[in-house]
Design goal:
The chain has 265 residues and is an alpha+beta fold. The protein has helices at residues 12-21, 34-39, 75-80, 82-87, 89-96, 101-104, 109-115, 122-128, 142-145, 213-221, 246-264, and strands spanning 5-7, 25-28, 47-50, 60-63, 66-70, 132-135, 139-141, 146-148, 151-152, 160-166, 170-177, 184-193, 196-202, 210-211. The chain has two domains: 5-50, Uridine Diphospho-n-acetylenolpyruvylglucosamine Reductase, domain 2 (2-Layer Sandwich), CATH 3.30.43.10; 60-264, Uridine Diphospho-n-acetylenolpyruvylglucosamine Reductase, domain 3 (2-Layer Sandwich). The mean pLDDT is 96.
């Protein structure tokens, strides 16, 4: 077993300093990905900087036509928050379907987005809703944040503090989940926003979460399930593993998109 130093800073400034002073630090929020990885000896950070209890990093606030959700807000808190249920029920539904109760009460919004697991749910919501990722250094548009599987635009020592979700006219999320892990084999988030229809797909692409321009065009002309009948989803670029082939995932993208549209209308 290797040694690791655990830190619980009282402020964001303290957290940033700890990250800068350590040899190979990792930010710890809910720990639902990092801790299992460490247990398997696939990661061996020198220091863990636990940000979950820093004041101001959790909670939901209404900010004009958007909801600002703190990065340390748990999935369960997102799912049960009155403002999210009232103004962004599609996100509440998504959060309620993540993992099991133990995961939902430990895992955090910011940790999930920062990790950018290709089968995670939140990245689809961030991309489909055109959210803004707020960090200790800047604000990053969703389109510029996700850089591929397990990769984001975050710099070393940069911490997500909140995510601002614009409120759509309507939207919904549908996923075909792995029965054991409840990760998305394919998940599709459909949102009709002030800037048009946006469709984001998670769990399927080799490069992680992505938008479907073909589906967006079809739904912009006619926001209905039948509008997707003529859309062809190619298997090229889709993941293929023990849970499903590329062709299977391509088929599921269309099925889940139709279910999301049906739920939205």
């Amino acid at each position: 077993m290797y040694e690791v130093q655990y830190h619980r800073p009282g402020s964001i400034d303290d957290a940033i300093k700890l990250l800068g002073d350590a040899d190979d630090p990792k930010v710890l929020a809910g720990g639902q990905t990092l801790l299992p990885t460490m247990k398997q000896h696939l990661a061996a950070p020198s220091d863990l900087v636990d940000i979950r209890r820093i004041p101001g990093l959790s909670g939901v606030t209404r900010d004009g036509d958007a909801l600002r959700i703190g990065a340390a807000t748990t999935h369960a808190e997102v799912a049960g928050n009155a403002d999210v249920l009232a103004h962004l029920p599609s996100l509440a539904c998504l959060a309620a379907g993540i993992g099991d109760p133990a995961v939902r009460h430990m895992g955090t919004l910011g940790g999930s987005v920062a990790n950018n697991d290709p089968a995670a749910d939140y990245p689809a919501a961030v991309l489909a809703l055109g959210a803004t990722v707020i960090t200790t250094a800047r604000e990053i548009a969703a389109a510029d944040f996700f850089d591929g599987m397990f990769t984001t635009a975050l710099d070393e020592g940069e911490i997500i503090t909140a995510i601002s979700f614009p409120l759509p006219k309507r939207g919904a999320y549908a996923k075909f989940r792995n029965p054991a892990s409840r990760y998305a084999i394919v998940g599709v988030f459909v949102a009709e926003t002030g800037g048009g229809v946006r469709v984001a797909v998670t769990g399927a692409g080799e490069g992680g979460v992505f938008r479907s321009a073909e589906m967006e065009a079809a739904l912009s002309a006619d926001f209905s399930e039948s509008a997707l009948d003529a859309v062809s989803v190619p298997a090229d670029g889709m993941m293929s593993d023990i849970h499903g082939s590329a062709e299977y995932r391509a088929h599921l993208v269309k099925v889940m998109a139709k279910r999301a549209v049906a739920a939205a209308v």
